[in-house]
Amino acid sequence: GSDDLEGFVFYDLPEQYADKGYFPEKMQIYTRCLCKQYDVPYALVLAIIEQESGYEFDKTGDGGQSKGYMQIYEKWHTDRMQNLGIDFLSYLLKKYGTIQDTLAAYNYGEKGAREYLWSNGVYVYSYNTAIMQRMKEIEEVVGK
Fold it and tell me: What pLDDT is stored for residue 84 in this prediction?
């Protein structure tokens, strides 16, 4: 709805991503609406997209297993997304309560984050630190 677009600002891709990256206005509007609907910070999603794919919608990783803007590992997330019926980031934010821990669970998987990070006292590391910093910078452009 129009309420979801209140304060929408088109995000020009950073120069280093402009040659390969593509994030058209229609996709930005759609993403912004989903973020509002599921109470996920829009700047967080943009920062994850930048980190994961450099705004390349057709990027693949992990030997072709991870796909798209956010490099979703389809083997692990397709069923989860269908069963939950909600956005995965929204689920993680509600479950863990912080962006820092949400990003760790997103990056490592929930089990991996517990086993390899949190059980060893690691809560802040390069991946979540970089995205949280970039999120703050993006917020200055697009708002919260």
Answer: 47
User: 37: which residues sit within 8 A by CB, 6+ positions away?
Assistant: 4, 87
* Tens-place pLDDT, residues 93-117: 999 999 999 999 999 989 999 999 9
- Give the pLDDT confidence score for residue 4 in this predicted structure: 66
Query: Distance between CA 138 and CA 144 in Å, rounded?
Result: 9
Which tokens is 115 given? 């086993």
| 80 pLDDT more than 60 | no
93, 39 Cβ separation under 8 angstroms: yes
Chain centre distance of CA 48: 4
In the 8-state DSSP scheme, what is residue 4?
G
Q: Whole-angstrom Cα distance, residue 38 to residue 60?
A: 26
Q: What are phi and psi of 72, to 5 degrees?
A: -75, 125
Under 8 Å between Cβ of 52 and 31: no
Helices and strands per DSSP (H, E), number in the chain: 7, 3
Give tens-digit pLDDT for 4-29: 678 889 999 999 998 999 999 999 99
* Tokens matching residue 81: 């997304």
Sheet with 60-61, side-by-side order of all strands: 60-61, 66-67, 72-73
